[in-house]
Design a protein that fits this description.
Strand content: 5-15%
Domain Aminotransferase class I/classII large: 63-397
Cofactor: pyridoxal 5'-phosphate
Shape: globular
GO molecular function, one term: pyridoxal phosphate binding
Protein name: Aminotransferase
Number of helices: 19
Largest sheet: 7 strands, mixed
Helix content: 40-55%
Number of domains: 2
EC number: 2.6.1.-
CATH superfamily of the largest domain: Type I PLP-dependent aspartate aminotransferase-like (Major domain)
Structural class: alpha/beta
Strand order of the largest sheet: 2-8-7-6-5-3-4
Distance between the termini: 39 Å
Radius of gyration: 22 Å
């Protein structure tokens, strides 16, 4: 059998869904797509198969890793607890100190009869367990367009039907309670509230969250509240509220499942530490599912590193200052670059969008040219239909200001190169090879 026959014969239907899914890994355009187009050396840019660009002279503004890195206190704690005693036994789901701290610091709750926290393999693990625990085939899930890469395919591989709400200026680039209520049908099982929202970095107001929670409660709908990017307040005037923290006798949040981790806030994606919070009766189902699939508890050194990091307030202060400095630099760059704009100012985290639609060329062509000038970015087609060829998502967490100085030099050059049409056919070939329906629409738009 050839590769296609092997896949069609042996893969489960849920795996087949991902083969040509526009948001399946490898099926959307990133700086990695541009590596082959430009004929660059993979080992030079991404040695040992790492996800982020680490090649000398290159800067990664694409994947959402906190490039500031971990606090020294976390590294010291990890070394201290990498001992013979700790490594020879299975760790608990979460050590008690970390469970208490995660409940209070990440979700704004105390542990008790109606709230607990379990450990998961990063916030990404929390996404998978939430979908697998609560979704049945045919259930409808309300999310946004654009949205984090894995929200849509993760739901669909569980047999759910995704009902996206398009984001734009009309709703402030976030979920509007009235639009959410209008999207509900008798089949709606879950509302995904990503807040701060990836890719725009904006946050919902307390009133908006309470209204969405009330709508879901009235209709017996579970809320999946992903708050992965809530550690850094990059806009001092904004205030983020974990939905779990809004729990009261008048506004019970027992129907809310909350997920966060330490990758974004504390620069430790390699240790895969995440938290899933909710009512113990609901998390019991998630825990049992986890034990029958991965059966992975977070390693001891990683748990102690997370405990140290989440109490390192000096690190949080310094890293927030870096992010505010970096955003200001990008804002100035955009202001001086013709055809580029920022749809909405990010408020939390280090994730933002620039809109290049006024340049007259696609985001994919510009992304290819940016890599030529040693800047890696990710384009909008992996996030949804909205902004698929108009949006470039940026990670502005790099601690070295040289990254943003190079971006300022590279952006106008990349636009000028893209306008020459030298990458158009290669971008078209990429989407032809993927064969997704979104890719086919993108080809037609690029050809116009």
């Amino acid at each position: 059998m050839d590769s296609k026959q092997l896949q069609q014969t042996f893969l489960a239907d849920r795996a087949k869904i991902l083969l040509h899914h526009p948001q399946g890994m490898g099926n959307y355009f990133t700086f990695k797509s541009a590596v082959d187009i430009l004929g660059l050396d993979w080992d030079e840019l991404l040695p040992n198969g790492v996800y982020n660009i680490t090649g000398e002279g290159y800067y990664d503004m694409g994947y959402m890793a906190n490039l500031i890195g971990p606090p020294e206190s976390a590294v010291a704690a990890m070394k201290e607890h990498s001992s013979w005693e700790k490594l020879r036994i299975y760790p608990p789901d979460l050590i008690n100190e970390l469970k208490v701290l995660a409940a209070k610091k990440k979700f704004g709750r105390e542990l008790g009869d109606n709230f607990t926290v379990m450990g998961v393999e990063g916030a990404q693990g929390g996404i998978g367990y939430t979908y697998a625990t609560f979704l049945n085939p045919g259930d409808e899930v309300i999310t946004t367009d654009p949205a984090y890469f894995h929200f849509v395919p993760g739901a669909e591989l569980n047999g759910a039907i995704v009902k996206p709400i398009k984001l734009g200026k009309h709703n402030g680039y976030k979920l509007n309670p009235k639009e959410v209520e209008a999207a509900i049908t008798p089949k709606t099982k879950m509302i995904v509230v990503c807040d701060p929202i990836n890719p725009f970095g904006v946050v919902a107001t307390k009133e908006e969250l309470l209204e969405i929670a009330a709508i879901a409660r009235k209709n017996n709908i579970i809320i999946f509240n992903n708050i992965t990017h809530n550690t850094h307040q990059t806009d001092a005037s904004a205030q983020h509220y974990p939905m779990a923290s809004l729990h009261s006798p008048e506004t019970p949040m027992d129907h809310v499942i909350s997920v966060s981790g330490v990758s974004k806030g504390y620069g430790m994606p390699a240790i895969r530490v995440g938290f899933m919070g909710g009512h113990p009766a609901l998390l019991r189902g998630a825990f049992l599912l986890k034990m029958e699939t991965t059966k992975i508890h977070i390693n001891y050194p990683g748990q102690y590193a997370s405990l140290a990091a989440m109490q390192d307030y000096n690190y949080l202060k310094k890293s927030t200052e870096i992010l505010r400095r970096n955003y200001k630099h990008i804002e100035e760059t955009v202001d001086m670059t013709e055809g580029v704009s920022i749809p909405v100012k990010p408020q939390y985290g280090f994730c933002m969008i620039i809109d290049i639609s006024a340049t007259g060329v696609s985001a994919q062509e510009i992304a290819t040219a940016l890599l030529k000038y040693k800047i890696g970015v990710i384009t909008g087609d992996g996030l949804g239909d909205v902004g698929d060829i108009e949006y470039i998502r940026l990670n502005y967490s790099h601690p070295d200001i040289k990254c943003f100085e190079l971006f300022r030099e590279a952006l106008p050059k990349a636009i000028a190169d893209a306008k020459k049409g030298i990458y158009k056919q290669d971008v078209i070939k990429f989407f032809e090879k993927i064969g997704s329906e979104r890719g086919k629409r993108i080809i037609e738009r690029i050809k116009e």
